[in-house]
Amino acid sequence: MSPRTRSQKASAELEATDPSPAVNGTLQPSSKNGPEAAADGEVQENVFLFAPNLIGYARVVLTMASLYYMPLHPRTCSLLYSVSCLLDALDGYAARYFNQSTTFGAVLDMVTDRCTTACLLVFLSSAWPRWSIVFQSLIALDMASHYMHMYATLSMGGSSQSHKKVDSSRSWVLYQYYHSRTVLFICCALNELFFIGLYLLSFSSPTLSPSLLQPKVGGPAGDTTIPPPEGYSSPWSAGALELARANKIDSFWPWVITGISFPVMALKQFINVVQMVKASKWLAEGDMASRKALRAAKNN
Fold first, then answer.
1. CATH entry 1.20.210.10 includes domain 47-155+173-208+244-295
2. What residues act catalytically?
3. pLDDT higher than threshold 50 for residue 35
């Protein structure tokens, strides 16, 4: 067999194993790139690496860091928590700018919001045990309202339906809340700001936290310094010093923050109630329609 014949035979065998077309006698790389590649050579996208989802992961990291600093470092915790909340607006902008709106991103955003707020309310429950039932009720309302709303949207409106697309005929309040990005941002931001203000007051206001006025063990009666907590036996340890600084936070601005944001927080809780009621009615309508169709099928 001549060298040319052997070369032609080898080329034929390669074409049989890789059906990629040959141009000018040169085999082109196959359009397939693994089992997940599309047959027509369409580029496969990785939803998990979309820009808004990357921002969502950053929010999770910032939230976890804020929880680490929450017991003793109010300034650091408030900064990290606030940045995480502000990024909530940025991921939506990135989704629209890059045309990367996804169901996974919407769920990630909602789950992060709910878990972040719940963790802060859990801390407030421990800071003020007498008011723990209020904070626990707020956690339950927030979780139930958003879960029922998203479930009703997906089951009744279709898997491609966004929970933020609410028809005005179904609920005027929810339409105004979700339709305007400005209204949505202000309500969510001031709602979180109210709880951040309460968090700071737990470190600064003797009115709400009488333990801040407890005298130091063995010290004079007028000494209002808090003794280091267990685990910080040295008064010069980082935790004890931060606690001492935290107890001296001026409570003026936290009171201003909570006072200004309280009406919006109350409005947000009212919206949560409306959202839960409307979602319940929507699900009940679906149940009645299904039962009616089932009865009609039996009669036929």
1. no
2. 113
3. no
